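Milestone 3.1: sequence recovery, worked example.
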């Protein structure tokens, strides 16, 4: 992208009758139009597959079929495949320990050095020159780690290219004995078109993140024998991992045990009486960053057979985590 960063101003190329044109003049015009189009794509569209580029293959196959398609990388460059293409899978038997091998299939824009001349012409009193270059997408099989909880590319350089969306992931395959073990998975595929459905994301905090207790002056039994602790606890829950662009509606729950034992009395070797604890929940979206965090307050209540102290309630509260789900409105 020469338009942004390296160019201080834009020049519109003009022509006049009788002007002597050179190849560099016409190439500059073509480059200007191409880079302005790339700038449009980069600014107004996200990287990913716009249409097509379907990857198919069944268990037992030794190749996959890629349909014609259109994609955009993070530089705004168009990656276009005009005809169906069959691509052989990597010829690997296993991962060296008798297990399957996982690969991502990626596509990227070709480097100028990779373009093939499709037409040449003789010059007038000059040597022959290239007048057309064929732009064909570059497909690459990227080997993934064997860790089922974190399948990342083994090559750090390719990892960086994928994260920067210079290589677009189309599909993932599992290979065993030089053939597909299962049909091709398109789960990691990234689309250039934003989803029309609301974004839903969830997460969970760590335990022991509560601040408090803060007194609220309530400590009387309810009609069912439950007792409010007379205080509340609070914390700020970060939801930036959800990638929300609009303020979501949150649903939360307390994750953790509800049955406890009071602390051992002086002279006792084991814990005291059993009690049950839960809490009323109140959430407040963060006004300054409504799509990245929210505040939560909980008002504990309990019931037990013996005497439950403030320390017992505090220990119970600190054993709880916050499980949250956000749905963009």
């Amino acid at each position: 992208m020469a338009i942004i960063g390296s160019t201080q101003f834009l020049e519109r190329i003009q022509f006049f009758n009788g002007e002597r044109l050179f190849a560099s003049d016409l190439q500059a015009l073509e480059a200007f139009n191409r880079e302005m189009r790339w700038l449009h794509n980069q600014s107004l569209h996200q990287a990913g597959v716009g249409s097509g580029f379907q990857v198919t293959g069944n268990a037992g196959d030794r190749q996959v079929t890629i349909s014609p398609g259109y994609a955009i990388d993070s530089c705004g460059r168009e990656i276009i495949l005009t005809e169906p293409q069959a691509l052989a899978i990597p010829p690997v038997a296993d991962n060296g320990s008798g297990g399957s091998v996982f690969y991502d299939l990626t596509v990227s824009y070709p480097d100028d050095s990779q373009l093939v001349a499709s037409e040449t012409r003789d010059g007038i009193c000059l040597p022959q020159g290239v007048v057309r270059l064929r732009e064909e997408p570059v497909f690459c099989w990227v080997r993934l780690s064997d860790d089922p909880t974190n399948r990342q590319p083994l090559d750090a350089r390719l990892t960086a290219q994928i994260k920067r969306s210079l290589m677009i992931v189309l599909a993932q395959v599992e290979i065993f004995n030089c053939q597909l073990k299962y049909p091709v998975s398109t789960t990691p595929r990234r689309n250039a078109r934003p989803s029309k459905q609301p974004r839903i994301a969830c997460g969970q905090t760590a335990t022991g993140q509560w601040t408090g207790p803060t007194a609220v002056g309530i400590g009387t039994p309810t009609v069912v024998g439950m007792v409010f602790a007379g205080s509340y606890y609070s914390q700020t829950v970060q939801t930036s991992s959800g990638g929300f662009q609009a303020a979501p509606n949150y649903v939360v729950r307390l994750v953790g045990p509800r049955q406890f034992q009071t602390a051992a009395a002086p002279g006792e070797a084991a814990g005291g009486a059993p009690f049950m604890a839960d809490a009323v929940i109140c959430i407040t979206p963060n006004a300054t960053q409504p799509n990245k965090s929210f505040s939560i307050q909980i008002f504990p209540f309990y019931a037990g057979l013996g005497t439950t102290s403030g320390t017992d309630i505090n220990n119970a509260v600190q054993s709880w985590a916050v499980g949250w789900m956000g749905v963009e409105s």
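Residues 23-180 form one domain. The longest helix spans residues 23-44.
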